[in-house]
Amino acid sequence: MSQVSTASSSAEPKRDLRKSASSRGRGKAHAPRVPSVKVTMFYVALIVAALIWLMPVITLVLTALKDAGDFAVNGAFSLPKSIRWANFSEAWQTGVGNYFWNSVIVTGIKVPIGILIEAMAAFALTHMHFKWANKVFVYVLVGLIVPMQMTLVPLTLLMNALNLIDTLTGLIILYIGFGVPFGVLVMRGYFRTLPTAIIEAARIDGCSWFRIFYRIALPLALPAVVSLCILDGVATWNEFILAQIFLRSDELRTLPLGLVQFSTQFSTQYDQLAAAVLISVAPVMLVFLLFQRYFVAGMGGAVK
Amino acid sequence: MVTTTAPPETIPAGRKRSPSPKGRNDRSRFLPWAFLAPGLVIYSVVVVYPMLYSAYLSLFRWDGVAPKKIFVGFQNYVTLLTRNEVFWVALKNNAIWLLAALLVPTSIGLGLALVLNSRFRGSHIFRSIFYFPAVLSLAVVGLIWTWIYHPDLGLANQLLDALGLKVLKRNWLSDPQIAIYPVILAATWNAVGLPMLLFLAGLQTIPPEMHEAAKVEGAGPIRRFLYVTFPLLRETTLIVLAITSINALKAYDIVYAMTNGGPANRTQLLSTWMYFLTYNYNEVGLGTAIAVVLFSLTLIFAIPYIRMMTRKV
Lengths: 304, 313
What we know:
The complex is a heterodimer of chains A (304) and B (313).
Chain A: H1 3-10, H2 16-26, H3 37-65, H4 68-74, H5 86-127, H6 133-145, H7 149-161, H8 168-191, H9 196-204, H10 209-220, H11 222-238, H12 241-246, H13 255-265, H14 270-303
Chain B: H1 26-57, E1 60-61, E2 70-71, H2 75-83, H3 85-116, H4 123-131, H5 138-148, H6 155-162, H7 180-191, H8 193-204, H9 208-216, H10 221-232, H11 234-250, H12 253-258, H13 270-280, H14 284-311
Antiparallel strand pairs in B: 1-2
Helix pairs in contact in B: 2-14, 3-7, 3-8, 3-11, 3-13, 5-7, 8-11, 9-10, 11-14, 13-14
């Protein structure tokens, strides 16, 4: 899985930079590295582009650190006069802490259960010599393209009948169902790369399919499981529309829903709102920075 | 497990279980279904059945509460097409959004991938930076950009002030003529990461020798891109276009967070208008009919994608 990201280091650079890199190589390894004008220009251009690109995030951070008065006078894009950490604790107490824990619960339960059932299904589709495998796969793939709106009304009726409206349990069940297509796609992509010989050998040794799945296939697919964990975790953390329709009471809201609600309620308290947004973004940012290469790997698995 | 009916050659002496991978007996024919069952059952109940039932409901007039649904055939679709002005606004917005999504984030993503594919100090950091907005929830992206468009305190107007372009200042999100464009721009910021990632992955599959060969033949960077890189990225490009268009048609949260369909319904999309009709006006028939229209539009872009995904077996 990670070959996608590791391949980059072996891939040959092919832009202007390479010329300078290769000429540097020709001029003996110990020659002092003086960056050429071209390289400097390249970096300056990239850094400027990156700063523009991150402008919304920078604005967000600056707003979260200011007090409301400073914001009202100087606007979003100026350094804070004094850093006001209280924005975070105030936002946390006004409900964001509650939303945060709801999101943690939903994500923490949904992701492991989802991955387990998705991996089982993908394993059956790839290694169990199953005549209908391709038809079942197409059936599951349809779920990737279904707009949520196409399911909302019947789901409302269903959840109502089951008394699951306005419960985190109900929301988790829906998330698991909607997660199946992408999870099966990613896991299937990886299971297909596992050599059949290992599985055949285990079969011949009398190993049951459940043991093969649990003891051989799943551990071997660990990179895919980690990728899926992260992609799915972020997607669940960010989900909005199902939460909006099926959660009614304020104390059950997950972060994205809670934040939008927060923004309509406290529409003028930009400082607290920015702090609230930052609190919701922080875990995603952390996961992204720590496990970046798995994003690439997981996405690569999804399209291979 | 071992049955007497199984052909003897598949059961070597002393084996407790059938080593046959083909599954000749009942138990192993049933086993794949046991593995599939949890996923398939919950997926069918949560996604497939509601989808079909929505299509069925779109043929009725119903407020969602009354015990009786009145069968009206395709009347809901006719009503949408002939008497629902906002439906056309939404359809037009979806078309603009789709066009923008097919052109802008894809080109930026390709450009960034080409630049960041070469190995240089910090290339990984730049990849992270440009990918970063893609991990944010669209609701959050919407909130952040709402401040940027704030008429007095927002970055957009402050920037125009600083540049001496006061004439261009707008009340971005409350001007009915233009409000959809700032929303699309915000969505674009979030939509660039995925194409970039996919193009980067695609670029790594191109063997460097191809470029060497083209270079030896005297092809410059532009010709190398047009005649070597781009043709080899054909499949990646198709996947990128399919995924971005499907995602563009799914857009919902960002509009909800930024404009809630306003001002005067000028920024409604099919997805948000479906929500309004169903949950605010209790027009379940019209709402589900919109959902069916939205799904049909998505299918146009998704069928080639699904065929591509299943072809490589």
